């Protein structure tokens, strides 16, 4: 060997610093993604559990209203009824009633001036029949919307349904 030259020997017995840094970066990226996805799954599961519980409370309240309907009068539509559950004070429910509305037949058909291309007799009978059906349905059918709210998280869930007024007096004669 010559004494003036440096000897370059490459050692194959280990990893270089660059290889170690790349491995640590890949591992850190993998662990970050894994931890975030685990946390998101846990959060989604918790929200889904809360959502299902609120849905059950809504369904129970709507079923109670269907089995034992209130006296359906115009006064129910003024303000929503808001109460807390007796057995669980962290949840409250809100019940909102609305009368069923059917749009005007003339506006639907485009005959706002009462003009009908057919004969007047049929259109008069058709309109009076439609008016009777409209009045009857508006007396019988009511819309109800139940919203259950978790007081601590302010998370809410709503369901809507129809109620039938069996006490409504209908005039079916023409």
Give a written overview of the molecule.
This protein has 174 residues and is of the alpha+beta class. It has one domain. The chain is 44% helix and 18% strand. The chain contains three helices and four strands, in the order αββααββ. The chain has helices at residues 17-67, 105-109, 120-140; strands at 81-84, 91-99, 141-150, 156-164. It has a four-stranded antiparallel β-sheet with strand order 1-2-3-4. It is elongated.
Compact summary:
This protein is of the alpha+beta class and 174 residues long.
Question: Which terms summarize this structure?
Answer:
single chain; 174 residues; alpha+beta; four-stranded antiparallel sheet; 4 strands
**Physical arrangement of strands within the biggest beta sheet:** 1-2-3-4
General shape: elongated
How many discrete structural domains?
1
How widely separated are the two ends? Answer: 124 Å
The largest sheet, given as strand count, sense and whether it forms a barrel, is: 4 strands, antiparallel
Low-confidence stretches: none
Q: Classify the beta-strand content into a percent band.
A: 15-25%
Query: Can you write the helix and strand succession as a string?
Result: HEEHHEE
Total DSSP E strands: 4
- The overall pLDDT average reads 82
Radius of gyration: 35 Å
State the helical fraction: 40-55%
| Tally of helical segments | 3
- Based on helices, strands and strand pairing, what is the structural class? alpha+beta
């Amino acid at each position: 060997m010559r004494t003036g030259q440096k000897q370059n020997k490459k050692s194959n017995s280990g990893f270089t610093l660059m290889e170690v840094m790349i491995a640590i970066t890949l591992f850190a990226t993998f662990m970050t993604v894994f931890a975030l996805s685990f946390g998101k799954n846990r959060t989604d599961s918790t929200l889904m559990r809360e959502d299902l519980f609120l849905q059950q409370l809504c369904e129970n309240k709507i079923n109670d209203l269907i089995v034992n309907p209130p006296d359906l009068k115009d006064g129910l539509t003024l303000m929503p009824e808001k109460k807390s559950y007796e057995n669980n004070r962290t949840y409250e429910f809100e019940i909102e009633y609305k009368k069923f509305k059917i749009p005007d037949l003339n506006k639907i058909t485009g005959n706002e001036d009462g003009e009908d291309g057919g004969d007047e007799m049929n259109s008069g009978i058709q309109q009076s029949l439609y008016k009777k059906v409209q009045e009857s349905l508006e007396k019988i059918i009511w819309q109800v919307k139940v919203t259950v709210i978790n007081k601590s998280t302010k998370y809410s869930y709503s369901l809507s349904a129809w109620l039938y007024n069996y006490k409504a007096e209908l005039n079916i004669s023409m």
